[in-house]
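$ run holo --ligand "flavin-adenine dinucleotide" --emit tokens
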Amino acid sequence: MSTESLHVVVAGAGAAGTLTAARLSDAAARSRRRIVIEVIDPAPGTGRGLAYSTPDPRHLLNVSAGQMSALPHTADDFVRWLSDREGRTADPGAYVARGLFGAYLAHDLDRSTEAGRDYATIRRRHDRVVALDHLPASGDAPAAAGVRLRLRDGGTLDADAVVLALGNLEPATSWLPPGLEESPGFVADPWCPGALAEVPTDRDVLLVGTGLTMCDIARTLLHPDRTVHAVSRHGMLPRPHAATSPTAPTGTARPGGPLGPTAYGIPATEPCDLAALKRAVRYRAARSRRLYGDWRHAIDELRPHIPRLWQQLSFSDQQRFLAAEMREWEVHRHRLPPATAQALTAARRAGLLTVRAAEVVGARTGGGREITVRQSDGRALTVGAVVNCTGTEGRVERLTDPLVRSLLGSGLAAPGPHGLGFDTAPDGRLIGTAGRSTTPVWTLGPLRRGNLWETTAIGEIRVQAGELATRILDRTTRTTRTAPR
Ligand SMILES: Cc1cc2nc3c(=O)[nH]c(=O)nc-3n(C[C@H](O)[C@H](O)[C@H](O)COP(=O)(O)OP(=O)(O)OC[C@H]3O[C@@H](n4cnc5c(N)ncnc54)[C@H](O)[C@@H]3O)c2cc1C
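-- output --
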């Protein structure tokens, strides 16, 4: 075992950064390497990030508890944690509050910190990484190429390896009509703590976007004294999860059978086109409906294969998917917990929630917080608040975040395919503008969207975190960087 410590910085303490730090600690203990892990994030919490910070108990996981383990090889870990916490056996089929999952991720890190304490030291800093410079290997220390990070508080930090777990960076605002952003009644980021506190309870509200974020925010804002209007270009709502898991009739094969090289009728190694893929998905959905009375199983079985299928599509087919098919796919793939779906259906029936397909084309601020919004269907709505529920900006060149600007400006990172996230090697290492991975900097989760497409949920992030940890420990065999200051 080397007596020198490896210094790894994890920027971001949301789900991805927290899982990475925990798996680095586990990997250090396994390989008996000393490691110092600095987890940097200005946020007060650890393990929460954008998705799991919400204190509203009506904001539920959109995946059942049995599929939300932090550990890829211990499927029931989250359910066991829930059971211990509640003092009774938790239901793996339940959709629990997202805030609980944030607490579980913090517990996962504490557990790994304790188990790996002879080898790993984990430090949590409340700061923001604003820039990153490559420290090339010197003649004296050829193995020591590393990274210098600049922090918002003015400090610097040297590291042998860096993991950028920056997640969902900024709300998407490219749809905004002139004047809306400056309006006091406009809420740019509904997940920002306290963002909805100023929304008046006695005025109607417009939510722009009709995906999972809108569904959560509508649940928070639904009130007998007002109507919540939701609008998006397509007007489609996420489909609900089945209330109970379907089981195949006895003696029938699972749709698709074992997921071998020809799963979905698509040869694993041959490029496939979008039209063939759509046919295969429709075929599988119809077959699943026949066997189970439900299409959902087909979508869920396809999911682990998405990164491979995405990469097999030509660039122009990927573009076609993004332009014409993505919304349809997303409403089937990212589904609503049954309780949320029921609450929204009841609200629509009671006239407290409307959902329309239209674009916001203009906005005028009246007295106080009042905003009159013009829609492409000719309607004008006067509301007490407009809430941006269109999700986060995936195209990195549109982001104003200083670290992202610095990485793109220096060429250490380049936009991923279609401008989505950063371009990454198969192991998650950043590929710079020179087309090579020259810096020991990796990323995971939403910032790999252009390369993998399916990379934002815990099912993918937990696997990426484990693989990254092993990779970083394997690669950085011996280092001579100075200890973090
Ligand atoms: C509302 C919502 C609900 C979801 N629900 C589910 C679900 O039920 N099941 C599921 O599997 N998936 C779900 N997801 C998807 C997935 O789990 C999340 O996208 C997850 O939050 C990704 O984690 P992350 O750590 O990459 O990003 P984030 O949660 O965005 O965390 C990133 C962190 O990085 C920090 N940061 C950013 N820049 C810097 C910097 N320069 N320096 C230091 N720190 C920085 C931020 O402060 C933040 O805390 C959901 C996503 C959303 C948005």
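-- notes --
The first helix runs from residue 15 to 31.
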